[in-house]
Amino acid sequence: MRGQPVRPGDDDRLLPKIVDLFRPYWAQTLLVTLAILLSSGLGVVNPLLIRVIFDRALFCGSGCPDLGLLTRLVALMAAVPVVGGAIGVGQTYLANRVGQRVMQDLRDRLYAHLQRMSLRFFTATRTGEIQSRLANDVGGVQSVVTDTAATVLANVVIVVSTLVAMLAISWPLTALSLLVTPLFVWLTYRVGKTRRKLTEVAQQSKAEMSAITQETLSVSGMLLAKVFGRQQDELERFRRENRRLAELQLRQQMVGQGFFAVVQAFFSVMPALVYLVAGYLLASGRGPEVSAGTLVAFTTLQTRLFFPIGQLLRVSVEVQSSLALFRRVFDYLDLTPEIVDAPDAVALPAESVRGRIRFRHVYFTYGEARLPPSLVAGSDGHRPPALDGRYGQTPARPWILEDIDFEIDPGQLVALVGPTGAGKTTISYLIPRLYDVTAGAVEIDGVDVRKIRLDSLARIIGMVTQEPYLFHATVRENLLYAKPDATQEEIERAARLALIHDRILELEHGYDTVVGERGYRMSGGEKQRLAIARVILKDPRILILDEATSSLDTASERLVQRALQPVMAGRTTIAIAHRLSTILNADVIFVLDRGRLVERGTHRELLERGGLYAQLYRQQFGAGLIEARCEDGLVLASGQVITTDA
To answer: Residue 441: how many CA atoms within 13 Å on its side-chain side?
Structure first.
């Protein structure tokens, strides 16, 4: 999993990425900006009109009050907020529309990016953590994207326009009003920095909460807890993390509250200080003369100035907190997917694929490992096309697969056999590129799978695993996952071939019966046969059966084996099995041990050879009969075949 996640304090890289989210909506953003400039600018008009009303219409000496001028000014004062309010409504709508589109794009982008990540990413990351990034972190920045940007811009315009108006009225009083503002700004930065750290820790705690609930409230987790009597322990684990999260969120909310109370008190007292200073200036006769209109206008502007400054101080703290959330989102977005289409990747037409599979001296590890000197030097003739320079330079680690080399002819049934951890499933993962080889190559019809487009590869390969995954949906919807445009006739044909059609009709709503989370309303054999029906509907040229019957009872195993016969016909099939009774009819059996291919041959050939396969066979079956059939009848542990018509 490669990437360059944003590091704490790396805001110079983070902010451009946030701004870039708004790029597709630059026209709407420009309209919002213009609306903000206009509505915020209009807010300065009324305080200036108040000064004119006091000094020219009400208290202007002889001939005052001037009712005509007063009427016109009051009408103008009434019109300004009406126009400003109308502009504000439009501005709010546009700002929220843009914000919601940005949030929609961010969620889509993150989900799409996660879909492109390799299987390695998901095996190394808890599902609850991923869900937390999509829900909690993206949801946490929503208010910033939809409201805060517009709020900041509006308040900045208000502050600037108000300052200009205040300076025009009285620069000494303006200087007095702004005396301690720089100190407040610095303190706000410190508060925001603390809040940001707390936010990041709180989001990690939320992710842990999501992971706990996802793990323990799923059907599998709940079943495990009940069987082992661990409900109280799980409850305590949840309570412990919930308590930690509550404490973090309390600290997060309380950070800076005392500071903001001081700021608010100072801003409330400032108009009184202006009156006091103005009184001293008038009494002493020093300084510029201050009229009643000037004082009223100035204090009105001052109130208008302090409110947005207070808002900006608070918002700046919230913005710094949101940067921690943005960082967690971009941590994922900055990860580079390992499994991607090569620039020259080709699409293999499914109808023309024969299904020949070749492993060419394949090496693979889930981590990093030292390649053999011959591979690094390229002296033995099977050096892979490209090697990442890190290999051969890192401390040695065990290989999962080491120098695997074999070929499977089109239409063959091939079995992979070996002890647990021998590398059988890993081989099945390399064919559809769930992982890429570390060295060597995997080919289909002579084409390196790394040169085949991923969507094309997915169309020609089908897989049935030991524990098939079914969605919490109807039987029909689960089957249509393989072929969304399949007709009812095609669905029923696949179900009949998989020997599950009659069982489906016995369900309460037939094909419209909801199977429950992960198919828990169905037995293991029924789930397997549904998975087989799904693969039949897909109609792949290459079929991978990964322990497809190992968890089933004998009766279910035989049903599934019967269901698999029409699926395997004419397809290249790779069967992975611990239970050797499932692969007696294989055209060739590859035996693996500790990542190496140690034997190959038919069932009889391998028994006669007396190697690892024969040893595994004797350990599993002893002297008893095999609970499965081959073409000629039942096979004894010795390899003798008893012909039977049964």
So the answer is: 16
Mean pLDDT comparison of 32-36, 158-162, 200-204, highest-scoring range: 32-36
Note the pTM of the prediction, 2 decimals.
Answer: 0.67
560: helix, strand or coil: helix
Q: Tens digits of per-residue pLDDT, 293-352?
A: 666 667 777 666 666 766 676 676 667 667 777 888 888 888 888 888 889 889 888 788
Instruction: Say what the alpha-carbon torsion angle 207, 211, 214, 219 is, to the nearest 10 degrees.
Output: -170
CB 472 within 8 A of CB 515: yes
Question: Rounded CA gap, 137 and 115, in Å?
Answer: 18
Class of the CATH-defined domain 2-203+255-336? mainly alpha
How open is the CA angle 200-213-102, to the nearest 5 degrees? 50
| Euclidean distance between CA atoms 441 and 447, whole angstroms | 9
Q: What value does the mean pLDDT take over residues 193-207?
A: 72
Cα–Cα distance for residue pair 309/312, rounded to 1 Å:
5
Q: Are 431 and 461 in contact (CB under 8 A)?
A: yes
HSE value, Cβ hemisphere, 13 Å, CA-based, for 5: 14
* Strands of the sheet with 401-408, listed across from one edge: 401-408, 357-364, 439-444, 447-448
- Kindly tell me the burial class for residue 613, based on how many C-beta atoms sit within 10 Å of its own C-beta (0-12, 13-18, 19 or more): buried
- Residue 580: predicted pLDDT: 67
Q: How far is residue 397's CA from residue 352's CA, in Å, rounded to a whole number?
A: 40
Helix (H, G, I), strand (E, B) or coil at 521: coil
Q: How many Å apart are CA 370 and CA 392, to the nearest integer?
A: 4
Q: Is 160 left (phi over 0), alpha (psi -120 to 50) or beta?
A: alpha
Average pLDDT, the chain: 75
Tokens coding 350: 């499914």
pLDDT tens digits for 84-118? Answer: 778 878 877 888 788 888 888 888 888 888 888 88
User: CA neighbours within 13 Å on the CB side: how many for 506?
Assistant: 6
* Under 8 Å between Cβ of 570 and 540: no
> What does the domain layout of the chain look like in residue ranges?
2-203+255-336, 351-467+537-643
Structure tokens at 320: 């710094």
Whole-angstrom Cα distance, residue 533 to residue 551? 18
pLDDT (0 to 100) of residue 275: 67
What pLDDT shows up at residue 472? 81
* pLDDT computed for residue 626 by the predictor: 45
User: In whole angstroms, what separates CA 210 from the centre of its chain?
Assistant: 13
Q: Which two tokens stand for residue 410?
A: 């089109």
> What is the separation of C-alpha 190 from the centre of its chain, rounded to a whole number of angstroms?
32
Q: Which residues of 28-44 are buried (b: 16+ CB within 10 A; e: fewer)?
A: ebebbbebbbebbebbb
Tokens (6 digits) for 262: 């001081």
Q: What angle do CA 574, 579, 583 make, to 5 degrees?
A: 40
CATH superfamily membership of 351-467+537-643: P-loop containing nucleotide triphosphate hydrolases (3.40.50.300)
Could you tell me the CA-to-CA distances from 197 to 191, 201, 241, 333, 543 in Å, in that order?
Answer: 10, 6, 18, 21, 50
Question: What Rg do the C-alpha atoms of the chain give, in angstroms?
Answer: 36
Q: 118 phi and psi, to 5 degrees?
A: -75, 165
Instruction: Kindly report the length of the chain.
Output: 646
Q: Are strands 542-546 and 461-464 parallel, antiparallel or unpaired?
A: parallel
**Ranges assigned E (strand) in 185-305:** none
